[in-house]
Amino acid sequence: MGSHALEQLLQEFYRGSKMAAARIISLVERNDPAGREILKQLYSKSGQGYIIGITGPAGSGKSTLTDSLVKLLRQQNRRVGVVAVDPTSPFTGGALLGDRVRMGELSLDSEVFIRSMGTRGNLGGLSWAARDALVVLDAFGCDYLFVETVGAGQSQVDVARVADTVIMVDVPGLGDDIQAAKAGIMEIGDIFVVNKADRGDADKLVRYLQSTLELGQQNDDEWQPPVLKTIAWQGTGVEDVLKGIMAHRRHLEQSGLIVSRRKQRLKEEVILQVERLVQMRLSEGFQSEEVLSRVYCRELDPWTAAKTMINSLSGKKCEARNP
Amino acid sequence: MRKIRVLVAKVGLDGHDRGAKVIARAFRDAGMEVIYTGIRQTPEQVVAAAIQEDVDVVGLSSLSGGHELLFPRVAKLVKEQMGDQVLVIGGGVIPEDEIPALKEAGIAAVFGPGTSLKEIIDFVHTHVNRAS
Ligand SMILES: Nc1nc2c(ncn2[C@@H]2O[C@H](COP(=O)(O)OP(=O)(O)O)[C@@H](O)[C@H]2O)c(=O)[nH]1
Ligand SMILES: [Mg+2]
Predict the structure, then answer these.
(1) What residues does the AAA+ ATPase domain cover (chain A) (predicted)?
(2) Phi, psi of A191 (to 5 degrees)
């Protein structure tokens, strides 16, 4: 993409063109150098939006809940962005992204932008593309940004690395073993939602979650994660979830935690980017054969070899090739 | 190779989307990213979603009529708002003699009930615009 086309795309973006925003996200997602360049410029405009992560098992009603929450925020005249991430098949590289099914009416709202993404190469974790899409929509002027990920291991933990408030959605009737496995990831939830409360056993799950939360009570920040029941497809209970989000936000802002948490997250992100760059350089045919054979002959120990490699890496210009 | 993004939508009033889901899965299995939007989508909704998703292809399904108005409307809006490079294709229960008019209106291909999934996927691979 030439610099003129790039400039034009940016101008359309600043004029509020959704097509431009969508194309920028695509550029970023496919690692196009133009995407990097644009992101560099947009970054200074981001950081205004409040990010809400929604995670939980497939089919628990995350998209339905998001749809309901967005509609409430629209009544308050907020501009909202949604990034919905679904798994990419590791075998074919294809993905079926079905989150929009629950958000059909929102498509037409001029102040709402919804983007579906596959996890692509990023098995497990939240993709860089999803983080970047949030930056783009933030710079686009969204007051609230939702990121929906299927709760499976790493992506669930990752969502806490980008979101200010993390909502864990759960449903009754998934079985005790799954409940037990949950104990380990309970720390990352700021709000717990028991959806499909129209079904039996919702109260049992609420009690289970509450008691597990009490067990793990090690909060330094004194936030007590609420456990809320919803029937998302009717919108029942969703107002309380929004109130919970606002209360958590106030808590973060009044305690100053919002600043320290965001700083901590950015620190983690920069470190991850360093790792990513180093990995890319190493996999890019970096001249390591000689060093490796010296290690094999025991002339060099692996630690010293690694230091040698890092030193010669930093001598090269990382910008030479865009990620 | 650049990943192909396809939006699959079921327009019209009936609530049957089995055909649309079958084709959505076939696109996925062919390595594409499929944004499935569900039933009873208006042309305006389809195009608004296609824009936000920046898709290369819009695939429309219709079973119970209405396609003679709905498909051309989508094609027109896509062209106006996204440009010529987006491929709009249609499928479902569509009488043979209505196909020429649909093509005239900007639907690149119309696939009847007998079409094999492979034929549809091959068509997309051949005709999708990969330039950005
Ligand atoms: N019974 C019941 N079903 C619901 C409720 N909320 C959503 N669903 C349904 O659960 C299914 C999965 O919802 P979806 O939002 O796509 O879940 P996601 O995979 O977590 O995003 C859909 O068929 C919804 O209509 C609810 O409160 N009660
Ligand atoms: Mg979903």
Answers:
(1) 48-192
(2) -140, 135
Residues 6+ apart with CB under 8 A from A142: A49, A79, A80, A81, A113
Residue A243, min C-alpha distance to chain B (Å): 29
The residue whose two tokens read 């793990």 is A216
Q: Are A66 and A103 in contact (CB under 8 A)?
A: yes
DSSP annotation of A195 reads: -
A46-255: CATH number:
3.40.50.300
Query: What Cα–Cα distance (Å) separates residue B125 from each residue in A155, A276, B51?
Result: 32, 32, 21
Q: Are A120 and A129 in contact (CB under 8 A)?
A: yes
What are the domain boundaries of chain A? Answer: 1-44, 46-255, 270-314
Q: How is chain B split into domains, by residue range?
A: 23-33+42-54+72-82+89-106
Q: How confident is the model at residue A285 (pLDDT cuts 50, 70, 90)?
A: low
Model pLDDT for residues A111-122, shown as the tens digit of each residue: 999 999 998 876
Q: Are B54 and A26 in contact (CB under 8 A)?
A: yes
The answer to whether B82 and B55 are in contact (CB under 8 A) is no
Pocket of ligand 1 (CB under 6 A): A 58-64, 99, 102, 195-196, 198-199, 231-233
Residues B98, B103: Cα–Cα separation, whole Å: 9
